[in-house]
Design a protein that fits this description.
- The protein is an alpha+beta fold.
- The chain folds into three domains: 2-62 and 198-222, Pseudouridine synthase (2-Layer Sandwich); 64-189, Pseudouridine synthase, CATH 3.30.2350.10; 231-285, Archaeosine Trna-guanine Transglycosylase, Chain: A, domain 4.
- Helix content is 19%, strand content 35%.
- It has seven helices and 17 strands.
- The chain has helices spanning 15-26, 56-59, 96-104, 127-132, 171-181, 212-216, 236-243, and strands at residues 2-9, 42-50, 64-72, 74-76, 85-87, 108-112, 121-122, 125-126, 142-155, 158-165, 186-196, 199-200, 231-233, 248-249, 257-261, 267-273, 279-285.
- Strands 1, 2, 3, 6, 9, 10, 11 and 12 form an eight-stranded mixed beta sheet that branches.
- The longest helix has 12 residues, at 15-26.
């Protein structure tokens, strides 16, 4: 098996729960996930299957789109409604124009402080485990990029946003920061991932598989989600060289990585440039043995 599942993750399940559902059906074939969703969240969850699990790092580079709902006038340590809620006394309710101005200011590259209750590791331990034990958690800010952000609805205290962003962005932390600038505070009350690249929630399916064949019939070609990466059509000689781990010479490749594909639109190799030469070597091969 080799491909990607586009799953509509239900609320209440962890990303690992969804992986386990598929894993039980196709064991011992490997299954992974590309982009964790918290139990509160729903929507697009990409599961690489078989050798496609080796593409997770590339899928992580694809942009993600969310619809998020925030409630102003509240804060919590978890930055969502699953934590202990503290009510803020908001005496100056922001109007739509003020909210639009603040929200628009978050478009672009910026540093974001991840939430203490996250799966990031500190000295080998999950941040949320430390936070739950009452230990002080200080996570370093990291660069993210908000590609697009717009208000869908605003009727204080409810603010609904659509956000397209790079991987590693915490939407609940985005709401936290917007709430801070509005002097209202904010907690996330709902989150739905509507797309990862061109994999949309409208195309997603429930994690309900009865047989290995039902999984196979639902697999997508990985090239569908990797359409933003440079591709190189490989001839038979080049395929043979890459299959044996050898380098090939390629001209006019704009970057340091290219996807080697067949004439049948099958991914055969992820190739990387050898230093500053025109030679490329296989980093990951997907030839049928």
């Amino acid at each position: 098996m080799f491909g990607l599942l586009n799953i509509d993750k239900p609320q209440g399940m962890t990303s690992r729960d969804v992986v386990n559902v598929v894993q039980r059906v196709i064991r011992p074939v490997k299954v992974g996930h590309a982009g964790t969703l918290d139990p509160l969240a729903t929507g697009v969850l990409i599961l690489p299957v078989g050798r496609a699990t080796r593409l997770t790092d590339l899928i992580h580079k694809v942009s993600k789109t969310y619809v998020a709902i925030f409630e102003l006038g509240k804060v919590s340590e978890t930055e969502d409604i699953e934590g202990e809620i503290e009510i803020r006394d908001v005496r100056d309710i922001p109007d739509l124009e003020s909210v639009q101005r603040v929200v628009a200011g978050f478009c672009g590259r910026q540093l974001q402080r991840p939430p203490a209750y996250s799966a990031l590791k500190i000295n080998g331990k999950r941040a949320y485990s430390l936070a739950r034990r009452g230990e002080k958690v200080e996570l370093k800010s990291r660069e993210i990029e908000i590609l697009q952000i717009r208000i869908l609805t605003y009727d204080f205290p409810i603010l609904q946003l659509e956000v397209e962003c790079t991987s590693g962005t915490y939407i609940r932390s985005l709401g936290r920061d917007i709430g801070e600038q509005l002097n209202t505070g904010a907690v996330m009350t709902g989150l739905r991932r509507t797309a990862i690249g061109n994999f949309t929630v409208e195309q997603a399916i429930a994690p309900d598989f009865s047989s290995p064949q039902s999984v196979v019939s639902s697999l997508h070609n990985p090239l569908q989600i990797l359409d933003g990466f440079h591709r190189t059509l490989l001839n038979e000689q080049q395929q043979q060289q890459l299959f044996h781990g050898r380098r090939i010479d390629l001209n006019d490749i704009p970057g340091d990585m290219t996807l080697g594909i067949s004439s049948e639109e099958q991914l055969l190799s992820v190739m990387v440039r050898v230093r500053e030469t025109t030679s490329f070597q296989p980093a990951k091969n997907f030839f049928d043995c």
